[in-house]
Amino acid sequence: MKLTQLSLFLENKPGHVKIPCQVLAEAGVNICTLSLADTAQFGILHLIVEDWEKGYAALKNAGCVVNTTDVLALVVPDRPGGLADLLDHCDTCGLNIEYMYAFTRRRKQDAIMIICFEDPDKAIEVLKDRKMDGVDVMRCTDLFGDLEGL
Amino acid sequence: MKVATHTLSKETKESDWWDPAEALPREELRDLQTRRLRETVSRTLSVPYYKEALARDNITPESITSPDDVRRLPFTTKDDLRDHYPLGFLAVPRSEVARYHGSSGTTGKPTFVAYTKKDLDTWANLCARFLYAGGLRSEHTVHVAFGYGLFTGGFGLHYGIEKVGAAVVPVAAGNTKRQILLLQDLEPEVLICTPSYALNIAEVCREEGVDPHTLKLQYGHFGGEPWTEKMRFQIEESLGIEAFNNYGLSEVIGPGVSGECAHHTGMHIQEDHFLVECIDPETLEPVTDGSYGELVFTNLTKEAMPILRYRTRDIAALETCPCPCGRTTVRMHRVVGRTDDMLIIRGANVYPSQIEESLLLVEGVAPHYLIEVHRPGALDEATVKVEILPEFFSDKMRKMQALREDIQRRIETTTGVRMQVELVPPQTLERSIGKSKRVLDHRKMD
């Protein structure tokens, strides 16, 4: 249910985002989606890749500062208020979100969000009940399986 | 923090020193200093620079009646030595010189120093004193990772170790992986190098998958550059050894000017060979007891190149209260900075060691840093680049920002200057084998 995200520390210098991307390319690891948070002094790159173990090993080998974080891939109805309803529910249930970003592709009528919860296990437990509203925690295999089908 | 304290120094009995001169009663020491200062002044008369200066102030060897008379003597600066390049301060015929050493010459021409055969013996004895005080005995093996060559570190310690009768591994500087191999295979108990190189060895050990605690090292003597108390703990923890501080400079003799005993109460200055003063670098007057000032040394026994009142530019404080070890000498606390390393940023005096001190208080960063100073407009802007430790990297921006702000705040508290802090990946700042490069000043001064 949980998805492993790779997080990278980047120096804020021209060309520094390219380095991990090239490392993954050489290792044959496909990037599914990413988000980049940066400040004037440094940046943090979040990556969802198809084979995180292979990607992690390649990045580590290349000397990148990388660690892994458990995140959830959530199916969110792609309609006005779809995300707002979900966030409202998270709020009510006391689920704290550290950060989130959108998946690059849709699944049928739905959007996919990557969310880093403070407590991912609690989030899975709470969000199980939201299936009827169209919110779903995706399985890793479904996520990448669907991608192949797209 | 659990630090392996080696047992050797603890076995050292209270009245145990290499040379009884280390524990002379103060009055006896002063008499000896007076006699030796008089002899030194008389020797310097064969140096034209001193002869002229002493004549100008009507100073004769006979007029020296107490060690305090040193304050009537002329100062000697690094520039004076450079102005008389290469050997204008030589007080003996060249035929009597047994060895030359020199300073690194990082700022301009090198300066040379000379030793007679007797000077070399004195020097070895001075190094033996602090090595013995740290616990060195004839059955030990010592790994010396100081540079051998014109730099006084390697040879100075080398002969001190031989004086004690211990075995030397003269590895010299560089090729850290090979050094680790030697540390594993020759099993030395003692490590001698600069403190930053000791941390570098620990770091490379980890990279190579060698647990430094499996080495036979028990303690180390570190010097050659300013370091901090927290850095001592880091060396002790990462290498599992006890770390001793020692101090010296080539212009005065090299290592052996002062060193710590097993009580770590400051470095005992070998006062029977050097007169020490601690002065305000602006007014040149002595600072009040225990305050920080510039250290000034006068040779008392050096034959080849006796130097009067050498302005070291090192900032430290002196300690006169008795040490439990029984040595009667004045001690100096660690050097906190240099008058010429001193950066003036927006009018405030900043020493690189203050940045280091701040960093060592923050969990999650390595004690490697680079200070860059710019002046884009009218005001100075300082940036401190700091390496993060991989295990402290977080995917959460707010945590990384909090780390950055914590460092920034601590630097501001210690220096009084707000500097921009930049986090950089591990291993990206240049490591130097000798004195670390820590400041890049891009300001164009007219």
Describe the structure.
The complex is a heterodimer of chains A (150) and B (446). By secondary structure, chain A is of the alpha+beta class. Chain A has two domains: 2-69, VC0802-like (2-Layer Sandwich); 70-149, 2-Layer Sandwich (Alpha-Beta Plaits). Chain A has five helices and seven strands, in the order βαββαβαββαβα. In chain A, strands 1, 2, 3, 4, 5, 6 and 7 form a seven-stranded antiparallel beta sheet that branches. By secondary structure, chain B is of the alpha/beta class. In chain B, the strands form four sheets. In chain B, strands 3, 4, 5, 6, 7, 8, 9, 10, 11, 12, 13 and 14 form a twelve-stranded mixed beta sheet that branches. In chain B, strands 19-18-17-20 form a four-stranded mixed beta sheet, with helices on one face. Chain B has a two-stranded antiparallel sheet with strand order 1-2. In chain B, α5 packs across α6, α7 (176-185) packs across α8 and α8 (195-207) packs parallel to α9 (229-239). The longest helix of chain B is centred in the N-terminal third of the chain and has 19 residues, at 26-44. Classes of the chains: A alpha+beta (150), B alpha/beta (446). At the A-B interface, β1, β3 and β4 of A face α11 and β19 of B.
Topology:
The complex is a heterodimer of chains A (150) and B (446).
Chain A: E1 2-11, H1 18-27, E2 31-38, E3 42-49, H2 52-61, E4 65-77, H3 82-92, E5 97-102, E6 110-117, H4 120-127, E7 136-137, H5 140-149
Helix pairs in contact in A: 1-2
Chain B: H1 7-11, H2 26-44, H3 48-56, H4 78-83, E1 97-102, E2 112-116, H5 117-133, E3 141-144, H6 152-164, E4 167-169, H7 176-185, E5 190-193, H8 195-207, E6 219-222, H9 229-239, E7 242-249, E8 254-260, E9 267-269, E10 274-279, E11 292-299, E12 310-319, E13 331-332, E14 337-338, E15 343-345, E16 348-350, H10 352-360, E17 365-374, E18 381-388, H11 397-415, E19 420-424, E20 439-441
Parallel strand pairs in B: 3-4, 3-5, 5-6, 6-7, 17-20, 18-19
Antiparallel strand pairs in B: 1-2, 7-8, 8-9, 9-13, 10-11, 11-12, 12-13, 12-14, 15-16, 17-18
